[in-house]
């Protein structure tokens, strides 16, 4: 049995807490819904920030005692109770997510499809599920979701439905709804079966007008199975740094067979025009800033680090979509930080000389892309070396005119430290 000292356990707990404590769970839930809406994925239920109070919520003893005291004072002394700012338990701020019906844990359906192949989706539904799975991969990778297992994303699978219909007979005679009597066709539309040459070999005695015609075989309509995906439990997303000392926060879907299939053209056409536009990325960061500002302890520096991690994830996903990689190859790409480049002020000649004489100082966790490309493991693809500007409308169809390229807007840094534990 491995032995861990108390100091090492506390160190590990501090690392996990330091990465996630500043990314409050309810704000991460709302931020994931915002990213889903901006990307037009449609897999995260609508989520917003609300303030609610309920006796089932957790309150300490002091808050409950204050609420009881105020209620007693108001009941006995109404004039004094009117001066209270609030009667009852204090409101708590959190996220409110729309409840989805008919969904089950992804582990249930994935296990059912393997154990009962007859219930597996047909090829048409499998392609639809693959497209939804790629949406989930894109969302989790961009927001750096650190808690995506098979039990916190949902699948709604509706099996094929057989609709029986009544048999159709050829001898049904239409009736007039006004007189409610059978409508007999005119003599000019009757065919004399005896004189007709349509049935020359049939005996005359065998033809009877009163004999019922044989009924047609009954038939049924079979509907195609449908599938849908919902991504919930996004509270452990948006870290402010890439984990580099304990675990890589592996994605649970990385072990599924769908993760080995390259990205489809549908997901490329949906996401690449947005991810390639730096103006769209900047607007996304500004929208997330308004969300995370709801926290009373909002820190601009910490938020900028969170956005640097997210922009690095967007840059890697953009490269994977352009090269038609698979989700499994995407998670093998080295983590990057995309720091926003600020306009430098003009410096005097003395300060420029001093800066020229000083040696470059890089961070311990990250280095410049030209110096770190050789330190990355050989099986991991290196960062992008393309320096082309933004693609035109004929290539992507969404890049705005005048927007700068990624290399002109952000400074690219690649993390060289590898986590102690990882799945791949």
TrEMBL record:
Q: Which Pfam families match?
A: PI3_PI4_kinase
Q: Tell me which EC number(s) this protein carries.
A: 2.7.1.67
The UniProt annotation puts the region (Disordered) at: 341-410
Q: Where in the cell is it found?
A: Cell membrane; Membrane
Task: Please give the catalytic activity noted in the UniProt record.
Answer: a 1,2-diacyl-sn-glycero-3-phospho-(1D-myo-inositol) + ATP = a 1,2-diacyl-sn-glycero-3-phospho-(1D-myo-inositol 4-phosphate) + ADP + H(+)
Q: Could you tell me which residue ranges the PI3K/PI4K catalytic domain spans?
A: 1-340
By what name is this protein known?
A: Phosphatidylinositol 4-kinase type 2
TM region positions: none
Q: Where is the signal peptide?
A: 1-25
Q: What class of enzyme is it?
A: transferase
Q: Give the family per the record.
A: Belongs to the PI3/PI4-kinase family. Type II PI4K subfamily.
Membrane topology term reads: Peripheral membrane protein
For this entry, list what GO says about its biological process.
endosome organization; Golgi organization; phosphatidylinositol phosphate biosynthetic process
The annotated regions of Low complexity compositional bias extend over 382-405
Q: Which GO terms describe its cellular component?
A: endosome; lysosomal membrane; plasma membrane; trans-Golgi network
GO function term, MF aspect, one: ATP binding
Keywords, A to Z? ATP-binding, Cell membrane, Kinase, Membrane, Nucleotide-binding, Signal, Transferase
